[in-house]
Design a protein that fits this description.
Layout (H helix, E strand, L loop, with lengths): L1 E2 L5 E2 L5 H9 L9 H25 L2 H4 L4 H10 L16 H38 L1
Antiparallel strand pairs: 1-2
Length: 133
């Protein structure tokens, strides 16, 4: 709970001091009004509540009576409203699977790079051939 200006007792679950630190970390912010701080905290709480509720209702959490990380990551990936969170809530994969993906990307990158070099060599050959005509 936090007591703010106006003598009203307003309840917020998130620590206002932490929210203030996060807001001040932006170079564009010089000072923070108490009301703006409270509204940001309350909006954040409501957003997190909405994300959790949506993820629970549309995930496997209902079956287990629990909200899981995979429910959250699935929501971030599948729901257009939450797609901006896809990088923050990526799907979990095994380290071995990730290493295989990296190896495949590396091989694909080398193949792609080799193709570009072949094209450059073909271009050079054509230039030389044109000059001799």
């Amino acid at each position: 709970a936090a007591r703010l200006s106006g003598g009203e007792n307003r309840l917020v679950s998130l620590p206002l001091s932490r929210i203030r630190v996060i807001m001040k970390s932006s170079p564009e912010v010089s000072s923070i009004n108490q009301d703006a701080l409270f509204l940001t905290a309350k909006a954040t709480e409501l957003f997190v509540q909405y994300l959790a509720t949506y993820s629970y209702k549309h995930g496997r959490g209902k079956e287990k009576n629990a909200l899981t990380y995979s429910d959250l990551s699935h929501t971030a990936e599948e729901c257009e409203t939450f797609q901006f969170l896809a990088d923050i809530l990526p799907k979990k994969i095994l380290a071995s699977k990730y290493l295989k993906m990296l190896e495949k990307e590396k091989r694909d990158g080398e193949v792609g790079k080799g193709d570009e070099e072949d094209e450059e060599e073909e271009d050079e050959d054509e230039t030389v051939g044109d000059a001799g005509s």
